[in-house]
Amino acid sequence: MIQLKEICDRECQQLGELIRRDHHLREELGFPDSSDVTAERIASDILNWQRRKSAICYGVFLNSRITGMISLSHYNAKSKTARAGYWIETEFRRKGVATKAFERVVKIAQERGITLLSAKIDKTNYASIAIWEKYEAKKTEISSNQYLVSINI
Q1: In whole angstroms, what separates CA 68 from the centre of its chain?
Q2: Domain housing 13
Q3: H or E segment and range at residue 84
Q4: CB 109 within 8 A of CB 119
Q5: What does 86-152 look like in DSSP terms, one character per residue?
Q6: Pairing mode, strands 2-6 and 81-88
Q7: How many domains does the chain have?
Q8: pLDDT single digits (tens) 81-137
Q9: Which of 8, 41, 71, 129 is the most exposed place for a label (fewest CB within 10 A)?
Q10: How far apart are CA 148 and CA 138, in angstroms?
């Protein structure tokens, strides 16, 4: 069963440890492949990002194990808009984890009064594009390698 839990220090530490052990994910997220990158540093980076982007971040848990993170960021109360972003541990991809987490974060966004949810997605990220297409997303090319996807909720 997939659950979302708003992250605080403990979850940030768990996410830091997850990124540290998952080389592929660490590379995708832009963390250096170095032994001096600690779980504490990664956790600090997550918390700082959350503050800078006016974000609420949630740990994605599968049967009590943290498997990734999903967030609502760039929240604008006046326009009732936000962005959604997520990443999942490599071993849990293609198992419906991101799909279920996205379903839950859409409900959270609706409860917060958000009416338009968007994301920038690399054109080669077919799995992520497919998640948004289930919600009849509008897809706009914004660069040679990215789309802006958006859904009315």
Answers
A1: 8
A2: 2-152
A3: strand 81-88
A4: no
A5: EEE-GGGTTTTHHHHHHHHHHHHHHHTT--EEEEEEETT-HHHHHHHHTTT-EEEEEETTEEEEEEE
A6: unpaired
A7: 1
A8: 999 999 999 999 999 999 999 999 999 999 999 999 999 999 999 999 999 999 999
A9: 8
A10: 8
Q: What are phi and psi of 13, to 5 degrees?
A: -60, -45
- Phi, then psi, of 94 in degrees rounded to 5: 60, 30
Neighbours of 14 (CB within 10 A): 18
Q: What burial letters (b/e) apply to 77-109, b meaning 16+ CB within 10 Å?
A: eeeebbbbbbbbbbebbeeebbbbbbeebbebb
132: domain CATH number is: 3.40.630.30
Tokens 């170095």 belong to residue: 34
Pull the structure tokens for residue 96: 């419906």
Quick one: which of 74, 104, 75, 72 has its CA closest to 86? Answer: 72
